[in-house]
Specification:
This protein is of the alpha+beta class. It folds into two domains: 124 residues, Jelly Rolls, CATH 2.60.120; 80 residues, Winged helix-like DNA-binding domain superfamily/Winged helix DNA-binding domain (Arc Repressor Mutant, subunit A, Orthogonal Bundle). The protein has a four-stranded antiparallel sheet with strand order 1-8-3-6. A hairpin with a 2-residue loop joins strand 11 and strand 12. Helix 2 crosses helix 3 and helix 4 crosses helix 7.
Amino acid sequence: MTVDFTLSPRPLNSAMQRLQDFGEPMRFRRKETLWSAGEPARGVFLVTSGCVKLHRANGTRRVTLDLAHRGELLGLDGSQAGQERSCSATALSLVKGVFVDAARLRGLAIQHPEIWDLLLGATRERATHFAQDLEELATMSVEQRLAKRLLDIGSSVGLADARGVFIPLRLTRVELSEMAWCRSETVIRLMTKWDELGWVKTQREGIVLCSLEGLESLLNQG
């Protein structure tokens, strides 16, 4: 398995640009909550910069369902007012975007078919991600899941430099364990192992993927 490294943010298409024109600009600091699971939904949020974590509690543990970056539409469970949020959303970095309330979103979708297509496409994409996550949980080892998460993040927001691919997110071991659905102690063990192999280096500003080939080799193991 090879992860596609485009190393470029998703562009805002015409439908997203229209939402940006009609939405309410908002910004969130790192670790600030956009919304919590179970609270009434009011609309959708288009990420224009930064990274948002979608997560929910599973008993006494929290699991990360997905990460959203520039050009992604969040809160589709709130496209109809009165519904409850199915998961929580928390900023992993400084996040900027626009919020469009449910009533305005319905009006825009009627007037502009490209926005309706955007909503359908975003819904399909989120469902596909969820199905892939379930498959990974059933078929991949913990080491493979953590490697896949880092490679996916690197392909979305990574910056290529002389060191390798730099992920400009300060991810804690707990946050990484929530993404890989494992214990934080396991993440510490694996990150220490990969550091000794020269594959991954943790720095104050983020994480450096020094050897994409090393991490990708884990995904090719049976």
